[in-house]
Amino acid sequence: MLELIDGGAIAMRALKVIRNTGVAAALAIAAHGTASAATADLGTIAPNSSAGTVFAHTPGSFTDTVTFNITASGTGEASYYNFYVLSGKVRSNIVDAFLTLTGPTSFSTALTGAGLYPVSLLAGSYTGTITGKATGSDGGAYNFAITAPTPEPATMGMMAAGMAMSGFVARRRKKASA
Question: Highest taxon of the source (predicted)?
Fold first, then answer.
């Protein structure tokens, strides 16, 4: 994993996508989605940006597919948000959810409730497969969002090396004049 990212900023962007798609998820729950499998293409996600989608299912097992491209390598985050309660009753619930990400980098994890899942990603095309079972009285709905990696700019490394060399030269000159 890269250490030079602003994890808080990535998490905030992912949560913003979740908030923005929350209304769509509530509408999807109310509409009783009928598909047991769905596919979403999130397109190309530029560094420091996010994209997401909402899936809704009637009760039963499902397999969903998400495709996306990222243009730079680094640490990205997938977020997952499962909607549980509506009007004080479990109306929408998903259990046994699992994500498998394939592409230049592979990643698999169980999805347990809401969460952010950081992963080191190489630039390229990815396919995410989400499986699970909708068990609420209205089935289940969830949000899937991905925040593209924040690459380490090559110029930052060069600048740091230049500053170190300048400091070394200045120190050497100071010692020589003393």
Answer: Bacteria
